[in-house]
Amino acid sequence: MNRRILVIEDDPDINKLVSMNLRDMHYEVESCEVGSRGFQMALAGNFDLIVLDVMLPEMDGLEVCRRLRSAECYTPILMLTAKDSEADRVVGLEMGADDYITKPFSVRELQARVKAMFRRVEIMTQKVLPADSDLLKFEALEIHIAKRQVVLAGQPIELTSTEFDLLLYMAQQPGLVFSRSQLLDKVWGYQHSGYEHTVNSHINRLRTKLEKDPSKPDFVLTVWGVGYKFAETVSFVRSKP
Prior knowledge:
This protein is of the alpha/beta class. The chain has helices at 12-24, 35-44, 61-70, 86-95, 107-127, 161-171, 180-188, 196-210, and strands spanning 4-8, 28-32, 49-53, 77-82, 99-103, 135-138, 141-144, 149-152, 155-157, 178-179, 220-223, 227-230, 236-239.
C-alpha cells in the first residue's frame, strides 16, 4: 500500500514543487492551500504524513497542528517554517509537530526528511525488541510495542508517533545516557546541528504527559551537560502481554 501524504501550503509554487517531488517518490499526494480546509482534510483523509506550512490563510499551521492533536489525530507532521523564525519552530514542536524543515530547503533535504520519518517507525517496530517480547513495564507505566500504546496507572496516554518512538528507544535501554545528537540520529533518522530543539521539545512533551511533576521527573531524566536517559531505578519487567 502506498503512503499517503497531505501537503498544506499556501504558496502555489512551493505546494506544486513539494507535491510533485513527493509523487516522484511514489507517494500518493493530496494538497490544499488553506489552513481550515487542510485541517478538515487531515481529519478525514487517513494520511500517513502531513507536510504543514506555518503561514496559512484562515487558520495558520500552528493552530492546525494544535487542533489536530486536540482531536487525537496523531498523524506525523512535518512543519515548514521560515529560516529566521526559531519561535515558530519551537512552538510548532510544542503543539505536537514531529519535525520541521526550514525554508528555503532543497528537494533532496525534503525527500530525505520524509524518508527518515517513514523509516523511523519501521525500524523501531522491527528492531527494538526480541520477537518474544511485546510489553515493557516500569511500575505503573506500560509500553505496548505492537499496538504502539502507552498506559499509565491504567489510563491510556495519547502520544504522537515520534513521542512514542522516543520513549520506546530510551525505555528499552534504561540508565543509558543519550546525547541530543544521538537521539536525533536514532529516533529521527538524521543528524543536523541546530535541531536540538526538536529533541528538547519532545522530551518536554513526554514529561508533561507521563510525569506527576514534570519539573521532577521519575521516568525521563536529564543528565546535565550530556543529554537524557530513562530511569534505571524503577522496577523493570519485559514480558509478553
